[in-house]
Amino acid sequence: MAKQLMDLQLDEEFELYVLLKEAKKRVAKNGKNFISLVFQDSSGQLPGKYWDASAADIQQFVSGRVVLLKGKRENYMNSPQIRIMAMRLAKNDEPHDPLAFIKRAPMTRNQMEDIINQTIFEITNATYNRIVRALIAKHADAFFTYPAAKSNHHDFAGGLAFHTISILRLAHSIVNQYQDIDAPLLYAGTILHDLGKTIELSGPVATEYTLAGNLLGHLSIMDAEIVEAADKLGISRDSQDLILLRHMILAHHGLLEYGSPERPQILEAEILHHLDELDATIMMIQSALKNVAPGDYTDRIFGLDNRRFYKPKPPVPTQKPSQSQLF
Amino acid sequence: MAKQLMDLQLDEEFELYVLLKEAKKRVAKNGKNFISLVFQDSSGQLPGKYWDASAADIQQFVSGRVVLLKGKRENYMNSPQIRIMAMRLAKNDEPHDPLAFIKRAPMTRNQMEDIINQTIFEITNATYNRIVRALIAKHADAFFTYPAAKSNHHDFAGGLAFHTISILRLAHSIVNQYQDIDAPLLYAGTILHDLGKTIELSGPVATEYTLAGNLLGHLSIMDAEIVEAADKLGISRDSQDLILLRHMILAHHGLLEYGSPERPQILEAEILHHLDELDATIMMIQSALKNVAPGDYTDRIFGLDNRRFYKPKPPVPTQKPSQSQLF
Amino acid sequence: MAKQLMDLQLDEEFELYVLLKEAKKRVAKNGKNFISLVFQDSSGQLPGKYWDASAADIQQFVSGRVVLLKGKRENYMNSPQIRIMAMRLAKNDEPHDPLAFIKRAPMTRNQMEDIINQTIFEITNATYNRIVRALIAKHADAFFTYPAAKSNHHDFAGGLAFHTISILRLAHSIVNQYQDIDAPLLYAGTILHDLGKTIELSGPVATEYTLAGNLLGHLSIMDAEIVEAADKLGISRDSQDLILLRHMILAHHGLLEYGSPERPQILEAEILHHLDELDATIMMIQSALKNVAPGDYTDRIFGLDNRRFYKPKPPVPTQKPSQSQLF
Amino acid sequence: MAKQLMDLQLDEEFELYVLLKEAKKRVAKNGKNFISLVFQDSSGQLPGKYWDASAADIQQFVSGRVVLLKGKRENYMNSPQIRIMAMRLAKNDEPHDPLAFIKRAPMTRNQMEDIINQTIFEITNATYNRIVRALIAKHADAFFTYPAAKSNHHDFAGGLAFHTISILRLAHSIVNQYQDIDAPLLYAGTILHDLGKTIELSGPVATEYTLAGNLLGHLSIMDAEIVEAADKLGISRDSQDLILLRHMILAHHGLLEYGSPERPQILEAEILHHLDELDATIMMIQSALKNVAPGDYTDRIFGLDNRRFYKPKPPVPTQKPSQSQLF
Amino acid sequence: MAKQLMDLQLDEEFELYVLLKEAKKRVAKNGKNFISLVFQDSSGQLPGKYWDASAADIQQFVSGRVVLLKGKRENYMNSPQIRIMAMRLAKNDEPHDPLAFIKRAPMTRNQMEDIINQTIFEITNATYNRIVRALIAKHADAFFTYPAAKSNHHDFAGGLAFHTISILRLAHSIVNQYQDIDAPLLYAGTILHDLGKTIELSGPVATEYTLAGNLLGHLSIMDAEIVEAADKLGISRDSQDLILLRHMILAHHGLLEYGSPERPQILEAEILHHLDELDATIMMIQSALKNVAPGDYTDRIFGLDNRRFYKPKPPVPTQKPSQSQLF
Amino acid sequence: MAKQLMDLQLDEEFELYVLLKEAKKRVAKNGKNFISLVFQDSSGQLPGKYWDASAADIQQFVSGRVVLLKGKRENYMNSPQIRIMAMRLAKNDEPHDPLAFIKRAPMTRNQMEDIINQTIFEITNATYNRIVRALIAKHADAFFTYPAAKSNHHDFAGGLAFHTISILRLAHSIVNQYQDIDAPLLYAGTILHDLGKTIELSGPVATEYTLAGNLLGHLSIMDAEIVEAADKLGISRDSQDLILLRHMILAHHGLLEYGSPERPQILEAEILHHLDELDATIMMIQSALKNVAPGDYTDRIFGLDNRRFYKPKPPVPTQKPSQSQLF
To answer: Which PANTHER family does the entry link to (chains A, B, C, D, E, F) (predicted)?
Structure first.
């Protein structure tokens, strides 16, 4: 595999195609403009400063563009950074697709589509089935490429679909273990619960909140999408099915303080809330533990009330446990 | 004016047309059915028990029906109640419209329609204007007859429109006093902010929450209505106007804990939240003070953190204040 | 199956063996003693009053005893109750085991023992394995017969083991779905997490909190049990394994406010907390829904922030959903 | 109009009279003293450092003094600052009144005095009238020149009176719209509610909290002032009027958490609390929006729970709204 | 000692002088007036109903009067009550002082005066000394006879002074143990901290909150009293001593949520807050424990977050502990 | 007394034995390693940087070692720091005991041992006495040398014992003042309440939390220690004495939010909680006030909700207070 940003050693010089994840115009102490940059490829990201930026530079080097970067990996204030030696936009016959430079879900789009397909077959209630089909079809491209969040958990390309699928797997376990769960409702609610993020967020690259995202939030966005889909499919606004499905989406944050306008009032909505939280929590902790040596603690995790988590040392080999039966 | 429920003296016998506000089947100590009733006219309400109820009685004497009641006002456990001597449903040529027996807003529907009309003329932004027209036209009957809440504040027929108009008057004061307020947005948001209650609540008589009311809430209900209206009017889902108007409705409870999925993020939404709270607060306090003698305290008001309010005694006449100018 | 308490009709006379679930001495208006009783069999419970109780009656009719009850099912204040016609303690050759009269887990003790056995084989870490074996062996009788709580969730005989096994099933799903979970630690922590309830609670019949339960709580009780077991097994107090296992128990309530002296700081402790909450929540909601007709709401559930849950009506048969593949 | 601080371009040299808003002695890396300064005129403020400060410099260049400053506007770390070339105190025949260099309310003192005068005439209750007259007369100079807060809202000269007058205007709207409001009490409470800030704060220039401000707060300060005024005017400590007026001041923060020792328990106190909050909120949002381009968000506003507010883009001209009457 | 209310047996007839602690007019089922009474002497209290009350009865049998009561102790709904056989007001030559019929502090007024006297000698700061003298002299009668609260803690005659003295004793321990405590300030603040209750409460008998108590609270009441005393004594409003003493009173509830407009900001105020809470807590727990048998729990104590407290059983005699020295 | 770190003047050169309180490897801008150090002696601490650190330097200059430091006191960014000129480890015949370089409690170990000895004699209950003896004997060295906390209060060598003794003195005052306090239980609980910190913290020098400290906390640590001691002493797990003593430790943080798994449910536990808080609070405020000039405020104190405390100016001499007796 070709060398990537995270492979560079201190003082190593290099020439690489990288994505501009962030690009902000600043004014230097000498009064001239420079661009504060964050370079990214699928291995990770590093900052750098483009000094004495001309108006043309500022116009072309914007976030979301791929560049050919010639530089040197240095250290500043104990943190690694790039000294830029030369930089130009990638040409059309060079690698220039931003999506190729960002972290991706551990499943391919095809794999994820198959799972969604399969699950839709299990949604045997016609109302739920038709609405899910309509909305997934409408937002498919974004659904399979967007992250699940700007930061925090599943913040990689395809993270939205991957997080959804992860909850679906948990939901199947629940349906197998407990009786009297309305599986079609649970699956339909799961598939749609975060689909509004395709409108709340700006895209898989250089992700920001949109105006609708900030002022409406993905719950209300998706709620209105469901109603519109139902209208088009001739499903009555008063149908219990429609109200239950809308409730699944509106209530999935569990608490009013977390932005749900209603708390869960049906069993399946309560379950979806728990599974959503559980999957996001595991993902956040496991991401944080990856950067930590055994015996150490992670940094404080914002999304988990600023708790730190401990990574245990490998267990000392001990005597084999008894194989006798207890009862 | 004819005698009403609240005019009856202890032990007075009477014959009156009254509304059955509540009617619940119960089983008596002797194992027979009875109906626990609440009678209502526009003067107030009184309870009573219909003993030895037959199946036919139970079927006809349901909440929302008007009856001709022959009875006697007695006392039980220190509270007034009705001893039922005879009771039958009102006939079609007798007073039988339930709406005639409930408390009403202090303005007529015509007066309120005029004010809404006038305000719509002041909504000079075409997007807001068209959506408000469409939705008020669609829900007009309910808007002008429903209460603003099942209990708490403005819980009388026409209360929803009256509360809306009361906020509109405050909003006009604000627009006059402060610069740079987007008046059309503030007025449009005000008119629509509680309109979802026409779907959240069951009606002006024997008001209950509907399934949609419980599981979705009036904020999300109206949000979806606005989107549907915009679709029909050909207004783009991404138009800033539409997003701002939706935000006015979604944010008007002010805090996530109060059921708004987003807190106000534009000036007009913050103002609407304050005016809504102010009008509801004044109405709750003034209703409570009506039942209290000067020098006493109201009962604890649930909607105001269980505070009691004091009704001052009339001021003692004192010397006339100075008429000289201070500065 | 023989007739039980819940099968009785209004005014039906009967003679049944039943358990005294509660028995409280009271003084009547006439100054004489009576006993306020709650009768129970596995179908449910009903109250009754034993009037003019002699000193001997008061001494023998105490909670936890089985009696032969001759009575009549009546109604008082709209609630069913028993009029006692005659009552005596059950003899040794009659049904007199209190455990036979209380609700039971939907699995037999043998079935539950098998699952625990199997899981212990999967606990391949010797420290965890040995401690779990020692403590389950020590508390086996109570573990398989106690409820999981005095009220709220899994409040039936065998509920403690059943709840534990239910979480173990969820834990297996998690281990299958996610990488890098320490399965032995998760299983060991799950088996022990509520085992302290065998000391916190008084037993399967007429369950009360013990003094240790009130003043120490089942978390600290089990923590000290684990340390004692480790001492006896020669496991060092400073071993990381021991500290992690103790942390699983101490942190499983998740929040300080819920009685955990530490919040989860390892991944497996966080997962155990979520699964515990999830299983208890599903159980509480499903119990409540059992008593409710479709289209109605449950009573407010204390353990779920006083929320009510809706039981949907059966779906209206609709057109068959599409069988075409979406992607 | 003469050039001011905010008019200076990068690298522009200038000579201006400015106020020293802050002046703090510091020790430089080389061990010598310097003075860290903030310069201010009514256009805004800029920082600068006075190096190698002698003892005499430190004594004369203190906050609150006006200086003639010769300097150059530079940039440091992306923020503008002043390089000081020469600096001396303003002489008596030069501009040297600090008040001339700070931002001011948008009304003159005369205009504000007139409004207060007028309102006092409307306070027809003699107790309120006499106390208000006495206290406004006593604190007039401070009342019309102090800011309403050290920072947050109305933090400009005359802000205290301007904020008071703004609430008075809202209060008049309320009195016009609702019945049974005790207007004299509402107006008197409004005028006095923040008057304690004349003792809580140090003055209009270089505003700090006084010892009394920190340890007593402006509510208790004003409460004691009212009692003292009443004593001097021969008004009984037990008079209901006096208790109600004191309650208006003590309760106007609305919640105990906000420093009110009692929550509002009369209608007029509740209204005053709402109007105070409403006016301060509008002022904070509008100040923040001034520094923001359409389509952008303000910085997070500390006094509003760290919310950001959106400044909408100008509406796109659309078709004219319908002029037809709806009802 | 003469027989008292708490000495009466079931069905015992008696004739006793007792205090009417409460007397409320009610309407009976038959429409006639009765008076709902609570009788009290220093042993405790019992309820009773005075049927068929005439207008004259209602006028004379009001709370705070002593009566000669002829009655019988009965039981109603499992609670003891008095059947009234005859009742008349006590005459002037009979026991008729209400104070003789209520529970009293365990010290005499003389004893308590001596301690206050002594402490005032220790207040060597002239400002504190003079203000304390003035205010204690002004409110002496109420200070030594009022309870410290309407209910909760020290709710007996003389409780206010007794609670104050109890804190003074703790304060002396603190002054002895820690260095750099301003003892005169701590003692002065302690003596005055609750003195405002002499105005907040209506008196030692049938204690209610006054209007000033409800709308101002005892903190603000005493704050204004201190300022007035300082004015009369010629102590400047700006004196640090005065500000510190006022702060002691205003801050002694410790938290804004408990009604202090400022949190403690000097060491002595923080200490006073802790000692006040400690003494009240001990008193509440010990009162509750008095009514409880060893091995039982108290009822839930409202003032202590509804906690129940356990009364341990007497310890089992064990072997004598070692008398050897550890170090 | 010899010169110490806090005695150094700006630019003064020196040679001193000092402790390395902190030593962290860092990478400089030039890519080379340096060590970021904090030097400490009993007068205080100062930072410094050891540039161009070799692998050998990094290995030997670790936290907890004593070094002979030749350096110069300089200023950087307005804060004092050490420029290191030469540095080597102290030899065995030079001062090299880290404990000699840290702040110490104001009592000697002997004095503190005497007080603990004495108090143990007062613990007349054999259960408490034997457990306290066993645990204090086991942990004596750590108990008399550890701080009471990593930072916040009593963060000096011997602070743990000193804080314990300070609470014991308060406890004696309480026992003298109030009746019915179980003194042996209160003293035993006090001695053990923080003893778990000997395992929670790493030691008196360069104090950190241990793994057990982070994952279990000192409450659960000591609870298990008590149970183990009781096991060894043959005291039954069900003995009321043991349960009460464990409750004292588990409940002493008072609130669940502060890490107590149970709130106090016996009088002595409630008292211990209050005294613990009171002593820690006084210590924190007095430490902070030491660094502050009269008339100034302390920095915000983290452990006291970020409050600042005011240090009053010396009182102005005033007229002598009256010596007359008030009553």
So the answer is: 3'-5' EXORIBONUCLEASE YHAM
Residue with tokens 């923590």: C223
Of residues A204 and D68, more confidence is placed in: D68
Q: Could you tell me if residue E52 is left (phi over 0), alpha (psi between -120 and 50 degrees) or otherwise beta?
A: left
**Residues A224, A248: Cα–Cα separation, whole Å:** 13
Task: For residue F117, list chain E residues with Cβ-Cβ distance below 8 A.
Answer: 325-327
In the prediction, which pLDDT does E277 show? 97
Judge: D312–B240 Cβ closer than 8 Å, yes or no.
Answer: yes
Cβ separation C267–A309 shorter than 8 A: yes
Closest CA to E182 of E240, E253, E254, E256: E240
Average pLDDT score over chain B: 92
D29 touches chain F (CB under 8 A): yes
Higher-scoring residue by pLDDT: D116, F322: D116
| b/e code F208-223 from CB counts within 10 Å (16+ = b) | eebbbbbbbbbbbbbb
Q: How confident is the model at residue F29, as a pLDDT?
A: 64
* Contacts with E, F 116-135, CB within 8 Å: 116-117, 120-121, 123-127, 129-130, 133
Can you give the three-state secondary structure of chain B, one letter per residue? CCCCHHHCCCCCEEEEEEEEEEEEEEECCCCCEEEEEEEEECCEEEEEEECCCCHHHHHHCCCCCEEEEEEEEEEECCEEEEEEEEEEECCCCCCCCHHHHCCECCCCHHHHHHHHHHHHHHCCCHHHHHHHHHHHHHHHHHHHHCCCCCCCCCCCECHHHHHHHHHHHHHHHHHHHCCCCCHHHHHHHHHHCCCCHHHHECCCCCCCECHHHHHCHHHHHHHHHHHHHHHHHCCCCCCHHHHHHHHHHHCCCCCHHHCCCCCCCCHHHHHHHHHHHHHHHHHHHHHHHHCCCCCCECCCEHHHCCECCECCCCCCCCCCCCCCCCC
ipTM: 0.88
Quickly state the pLDDT bin for D318 (edges 50, 70, 90): low
Q: How many residue contacts between D and F have a Cβ separation below 8 Å? A: 17
CB contact (8 A) between residue B261 and residue A266:
no
Task: Tell me whether the CATH fold assigned to B5-101 matches the one assigned to B109-284.
Answer: no
Beta strand pairing status for E66-76 and E13-27?
A: antiparallel
Counting residues of chain F whose pLDDT is more than 90, the rounded percentage is: 73
Q: Tell me the fold of E109-284.
A: Hypothetical protein af1432 (1.10.3210)
Confidence grade of residue E29 (pLDDT, cut at 50, 70, 90): low
Q: Does D234 touch chain E (CB under 8 A)?
A: no
Least-confidence region, from A190-199, D266-275, E78-87, E304-313: E78-87
Q: What is the pTM of this model?
A: 0.90
First to last CA, chain A: 54
| Chain C interface includes B2 (CB < 8 A) | no
Percent of chain F with pLDDT over 70: 97
pLDDT tens digits, one per residue of F211-257? 999 999 999 999 999 999 999 999 999 999 999 999 999 999 999 99
pLDDT category, C1, cuts 50, 70, 90?
low
In the CATH hierarchy, which top-level class contains the domain B5-101? mainly beta
Query: A-chain residues within 8 Å CB-CB of C322?
Result: 129-130, 133
pLDDT for position D77: 65
Chains meeting D at 3+ CB pairs closer than 8 A?
A, B, E, F
- How confident is the model at residue D268, as a pLDDT? 98
Question: Measured between CB atoms, does D250 come within 8 Å of chain E?
Answer: yes
| D211 part of contact set with chain F, CB < 8 Å | yes
Q: What pLDDT score does E78 carry?
A: 64
The full DSSP string for E102-118 is S-B-SS-HHHHHHHHHH
Kindly report the nearest CA distance between residue F198 and chain E, in angstroms: 18
